[in-house]
Structure prediction request, 262 residues.
Amino acid sequence: MRPLIVKLGGSVITDKRRRFAVKRAVLKRLARELAAAEQPLVVVHGGGSFGHPLASEYGIAEGYRNERQLMGFSLTHRAMEELNAHVIKALQKVGMSAIAIQPSACAMIDDGRIKSMELEPVRKLLELGLVPVLYGDAVADRSKGMGILSGDQLVAYLARELGASRVILGVDVDGVYVTGSKGDTRAKLVRKITPSDWAKLETSFGAPKGKDVTGGMANKVREMLALAERGVEVEVVNAAKPGILKRAILGERGLGTRILAR
Ligand SMILES: Nc1ncnc2c1ncn2[C@@H]1O[C@H](COP(=O)(O)OP(=O)(O)OP(=O)(O)O)[C@@H](O)[C@H]1O
Ligand SMILES: [Mg+2]
Prediction:
């Protein structure tokens, strides 16, 4: 059966304004919602207040320029491992056989884009019934030395390579807004985005609320449009609201912003 890929946004499971702040109760609830899945599941999570601040402080996404960044690379990865451990534990507590897959050990990027990734273990573990859990990470970059592989890019890549049936991205807002972001009274929720209407929407985007070294919402949509064009259906939903992620996982459409080929 084709897997479902769900991203737990760093915006949902952490407080992006405070360093290393996991939202434990939210994570616990989301684990229960994920456990409702009736098909093979791959979970990806973002960096939130673990990965982004360190990656930004050391300029990891800009590539290797000085020796100080080596410690930055080490610290960024370690912070992601810590957040990942929280996610894995939360999933295990609700009976899910979650298994961490370390992106920096199996993915190579070049100028920020995935060039190769060893996915045989992921495929086999998924087939056995385990739930692979990957995350945005500091990774080796062929031309720039080092870089950041965002959870969003990872989701798109995995969806393609694993032949996902659908992708659900959980964030802390109701979906994609135009003319601003959360808090902006003029902001309007978009129900559907396709490659053809993206050009005019793209210009009215707000900046991410907290630190986001991988381009926040606009870049998320760009990654997902490329995926939608390959026939994978995507929806961005508000996972901060109880029950929404579960309903999406169980097949409901239209709860947030759908990103589709047409
Ligand atoms: N046009 C927009 N529509 C919706 N949200 C927007 C928009 N512009 C900016 N945002 C902000 O983008 C945030 C979601 O993107 P962000 O990258 O911060 O979260 P995330 O991807 O879940 O986190 P992480 O990268 O850690 O996984 C929302 O919290 C919202 O405040
Ligand atoms: Mg992000």
In short: The longest strand covers residues 166-171. DSSP finds ten helices and 14 strands in the chain.
